[in-house]
């Protein structure tokens, strides 16, 4: 039993099960229907942010192009299902394959860039994509946006809004497990080494070229998956959605949630996207201050809590140990030491 | 030929918008070691202040500008004291994300303080055109070009020839050593933030008459300015400024002389710049910083 509780897979599955109950709660009237929609979108953003977290958190490579890749996948999926009228599965393959190839190409370019140069290079790629979204109207619908229906699985099962939500939750749990496995294994160690020092990692036999490409590949695949889910869940895609601000929001998620943490990414995404939608926007007086609160949160977290909310688990356990009292080399707490007799103290000293 | 001169002069005018923003970015980068993503948003905030004074309170533009400058300086000092100075523990990426937080804060503050409507701003020189070799050209554009070049030259003269400039250059090259040598690095950083925000505001005031004062009207300028800093390299002060004028000329040439250039000029320019970045990853004027392992 303890093994099952400690197993990280069961944590992910439990989170998935909790999220799956939300539509029932909405039907029972405990929460509003719009809440489920907001949570669904938040999960979609979590997936893209997780990709960026693998890239930035593990390998230390910054990307400001996440929104561009996500948008590209959304438009391809909408185009393949609506205009070309091909099955959903084909759309998914095209919408993940094409951005991933592009992402790997950026990875090849990235070998030349470091730090902020890389950030701006990826920003340039995203801006080129955004110009394409605005101007290639036959493909993207231009400023009026592209429309997409809910997914039809295997050509027969037409999903409705709630079933699409289930699909999103299932995809999220699968991706969490996959990323957990990848980062806990050889790949995670190699990326960690690369972040510490590229030269040292190279000396230890880590192929920088290969792992940079893999890191960019993972980030783009997850951005693409999230883009596909977005366009079929929300139903449309405007060029204005996929701008720099969205990429910056993904960065904020990682900072608030915590680098290299899967649950942290989820919590961060909840705070950045869902909290303002659920708690601030319904109150008219507070609706306008959403970006203000978001910005202040980001700054406070960087200044005073740079490890993110994922660190809270360690801090709580640390605090509990301290409350119980720190034990010294003899296994005595401060409170116990106060009660020692002089002879006992001397005995301690001579040991 | 007349057409070309018109294109070239327009490039110079837009070049000054980009160059002012690029100089603002590089000043902060050199003294605080962070790329200031909030540059455009802070410029937008102060432009909104000036536009509100002019449009809502009926002030003259020239009376409102000093108020804008004072507000920009106060903002710069506050941001440095309250946030940047305390971010010693944050790494380079952490500091960048702080500036992203600033974007969000000011995007939230602006509609609360100045209202949600877009404003318009008059030109510096309200009327009059002159003809240069058969090309009609407004006095305002000429003023923008000359004023931009004047600010650049003043800044470079200050940085290269004066004691203040020496303090900025030492802080930029090595902050710890500069502090040991008695350079007040904290004051230098604070002043750099203040000047950077004033430069952004001037760039905003120049851009605003050609569009409207909205929450996002500076974004295009900011992205081009970032490209200019990367293509010019973060190593020097003059690199980004020269690159900004160069990019502006290239963009206008692509947009005017290419078939369907108004649509594809910008993406093509971005692709060309990406290629330049690939072959010159530390900028045209930059050099690689060697680091020991």
UniProtKB/TrEMBL annotation, chain A:
Species: Alkalibacterium putridalgicola
GO cellular component: plasma membrane
Subcellular location: Cell membrane
Acyltransferase is among the record's keywords: no
Protein name: Amino acid/amide ABC transporter membrane protein 2, HAAT family (TC 3.A.1.4.-)
GO MF assignments: branched-chain amino acid transmembrane transporter activity
Residue intervals passing through the bilayer: 38-56, 61-78, 90-111, 132-153, 165-183, 213-231, 251-273, 285-305
InterPro entries per record: ABC_transp_permease (IPR001851), LivM-like (IPR043428)
Alphabetic keyword roster: Cell membrane, Membrane, Transmembrane, Transmembrane helix
Coiled coil location: none
Lipid bilayer topology: Multi-pass membrane protein
Keyword Metal-binding: no
CDD domains given in the database record: TM_PBP1_LivM_like
Automatic annotation (TrEMBL), chain B:
Keywords (A to Z) from UniProt: Amino-acid transport, Cell membrane, Membrane, Transmembrane, Transmembrane helix, Transport
Bilayer topology term: Multi-pass membrane protein
Chief location category: membrane
Key word Heme present: no
Pfam families the UniProt entry points to: BPD_transp_2 (PF02653)
Residue spans crossing the bilayer: 12-29, 36-55, 61-84, 96-116, 136-159, 188-211, 223-247, 268-285
GO CC, one annotated term: plasma membrane
Record GO terms (molecular function): transmembrane transporter activity
Compartments, record wording: Cell membrane
CDD domains to which the protein is assigned, alphabetical: TM_PBP1_LivH_like (cd06582)
Record-linked InterPro entries: ABC_transp_permease, BCAA_transport_permease
GO biological process, one term: amino acid transport
Family per record: Belongs to the binding-protein-dependent transport system permease family. LivHM subfamily.
Protein name: Branched-chain amino acid ABC transporter permease
Organism this protein belongs to: Alkalibacterium putridalgicola
């Amino acid at each position: 039993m303890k093994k099952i509780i400690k197993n990280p897979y069961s944590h992910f599955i439990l989170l998935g099960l909790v999220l799956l109950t939300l539509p029932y709660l909405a039907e029972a009237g405990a929460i509003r229907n719009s809440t489920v929609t907001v949570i669904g979108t938040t999960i979609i953003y979590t997936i893209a942010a997780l990709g960026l977290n693998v890239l930035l958190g593990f390998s230390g490579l910054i990307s400001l192009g996440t929104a561009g890749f996500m948008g590209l996948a959304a438009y391809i999926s909408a185009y393949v299902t609506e205009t070309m009228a091909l099955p959903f599965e084909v759309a998914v393959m095209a919408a993940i394959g094409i951005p991933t190839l592009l992402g790997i190409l950026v990875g090849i370019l990235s070998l030349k860039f470091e730090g902020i140069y890389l950030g701006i290079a990826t920003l340039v790629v995203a801006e080129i994509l955004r110009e394409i979204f605005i101007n290639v109207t036959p493909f993207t619908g231009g400023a009026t946006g592209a429309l997409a229906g809910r997914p039809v699985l295997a050509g027969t099962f037409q999903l409705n809004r709630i079933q699409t939500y289930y699909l999103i939750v299932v995809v999220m749990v699968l991706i969490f497990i996959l990323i957990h496995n990848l980062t806990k294994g050889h790949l995670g160690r190699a990326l960690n080494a690369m972040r510490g020092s590229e030269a040292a990692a190279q000396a230890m036999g880590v192929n920088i070229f290969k792992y940079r490409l893999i890191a960019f590949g993972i980030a783009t695949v997850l951005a693409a998956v999230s883009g596909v889910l977005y366009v079929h869940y929300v139903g449309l895609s405007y060029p204005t959605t996929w701008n720099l601000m969205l990429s910056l929001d993904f960065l904020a998620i990682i900072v608030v949630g915590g680098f290299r943490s899967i649950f942290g990414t989820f919590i961060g995404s909840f705070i950045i996207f869902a909290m303002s939608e659920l708690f601030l926007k319904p109150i008219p007086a507070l609706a306008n201050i959403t970006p203000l609160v978001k910005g202040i949160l980001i700054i406070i977290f960087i200044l005073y809590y740079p490890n993110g909310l994922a660190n809270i688990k360690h801090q709580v356990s640390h605090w509990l140990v301290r409350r119980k009292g720190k034990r010294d080399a003899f296994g005595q707490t401060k409170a116990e030491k106060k009660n020692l007799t002089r002879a006992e103290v001397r005995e301690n000293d001579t040991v | 030929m007349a057409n070309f001169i018109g294109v070239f002069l327009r490039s110079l005018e837009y070049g000054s918008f980009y160059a002012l923003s690029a100089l603002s970015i590089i000043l902060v980068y050199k003294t605080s070691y962070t790329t200031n993503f909030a540059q455009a948003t802070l410029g937008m905030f102060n432009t909104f202040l000036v536009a509100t004074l002019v449009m809502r309170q009926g002030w003259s533009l020239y009376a409102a500008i000093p108020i804008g400058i004072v507000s920009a300086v106060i903002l710069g000092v506050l941001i440095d004291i309250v946030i940047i100075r305390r971010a010693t523990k944050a790494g380079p990426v952490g500091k960048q994300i702080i500036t992203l937080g600033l974007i969000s804060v000011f995007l939230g503050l602006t509609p609360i303080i100045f209202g949600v409507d877009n404003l318009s701003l008059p030109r510096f020189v309200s009327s009059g055109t002159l003809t240069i070799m058969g090309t009609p050209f407004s006095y305002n554009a000429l003023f923008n070009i000359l004023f931009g070049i004047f600010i650049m030259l003043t800044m470079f003269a200050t940085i290269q020839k004066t004691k203040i400039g020496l303090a900025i250059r030492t802080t930029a090259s090595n902050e710890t050593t500069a502090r040991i040598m008695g350079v007040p690095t904290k004051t230098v950083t604070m002043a750099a933030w203040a000047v950077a925000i004033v430069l952004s505001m001037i760039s905003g005031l120049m851009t605003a008459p050609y569009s409207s004062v909205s929450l996002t009207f500076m974004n295009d300028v900011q992205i081009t300015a970032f490209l200019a800093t990367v293509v010019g390299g973060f190593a020097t002060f003059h690199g980004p400024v020269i690159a900004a004028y160069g990019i502006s000329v290239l963009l206008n040439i692509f947009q005017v002389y290419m078939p369907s250039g108004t649509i594809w000029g910008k993406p093509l320019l971005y692709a060309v710049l990406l290629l330049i970045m690939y072959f010159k990853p530390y900028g045209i004027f930059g050099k690689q910083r060697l680091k020991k392992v």
